[in-house]
Amino acid sequence: MLCDGSALNSSEYPELFSALGYLYGGSGDTFNLPDLQGQFLRGVGTTSGSVEERTKAPNGDSNGVGSTQKDALQTHQHTYNEPTGATPGDKGPAFAAVINSYTGIPTSESNPSSINVSQYETRPSNTFIYYLIKYTYKLPSYKQE
Questions:
Q1: Which residue(s) pair with 9 in the sheet?
Q2: Same domain, 88 and 20
Q3: 40-80 pLDDT, tens digit each
Q4: Residue 32, Cβ neighbours under 10 Å: how many?
Q5: Three-state SS at 113
Q6: Residues 29, 52: one domain?
Q7: For residue 49, with 0-12 CB atoms within 10 Å meaning exposed, 13-18 middle and 19 or more buried, which class applies?
Q8: What does the alpha-carbon distance between residue 69 and residue 126 come to, in Å, rounded to a whole number?
Q9: Which one of 38, 43, 58, 140 has the fewest beta carbons within 10 angstroms of its own beta carbon?
Q10: In a domain, 142, yes or no
């Protein structure tokens, strides 16, 4: 099923309801699928990856399935070598000439208040999930011809 936040009837999908419950919304006979559209998925775990800066899942758990993180840019810096004869500093025509001629990137600073800075990592907006593998102890029966 597409994880688009759709509402389903618990009596039509009892096994799925047993696994999800009302974690992603719903009540009574209706429960919701997770809405993972536009999200990068990240496996739940405590041994690798960032567990900081999470937003709580709909069930209130901030360290489990359904918790999210906003995108972030890890604190960092860039250095450059000033051309011979240039006045020291990071602004002005000499700096702009170096940046534009070598990279083609305009010399403007981003608005720091619009960037979520993280001391832990650079990441896209993401949702934590469990990666699962389906197994069965009963093999399907096949007709032999």
A1: 30
A2: no
A3: 888 887 654 566 677 777 766 777 777 888 887 777 776 66
A4: 19
A5: helix
A6: no
A7: middle
A8: 5
A9: 140
A10: no
In sequence order, the 6+-apart residues with CB closer than 8 A to the CB of 29 are 9, 10, 11
pLDDT at residue 27, as a whole number: 95
pLDDT tens, 92-123?
555 555 555 555 554 455 555 556 666 677 77
- Tally the C-alpha atoms within 13 A of residue 100's C-alpha that lie toward its C-beta: 10
Per the domain annotation, does 145 fall within a domain? Answer: no
Q: How confident is the model at residue 14 (pLDDT cuts 50, 70, 90)?
A: very high
Q: Are 118 and 64 in contact (CB under 8 A)?
A: no
Q: What are phi and psi of 113, to 5 degrees?
A: -70, -15
Amino acid making up residue 63: N
Domain that holds residue 109: 79-115
Number of domains in the chain: 3
Residue 22: which residues within 8 A CB-CB, separation 6 or more? 31, 32, 58, 59
Tokens encoding 124: 């896209």
**Which two tokens mark 129?**
């999930």
pLDDT bucket at 30, cuts 50 / 70 / 90: very high
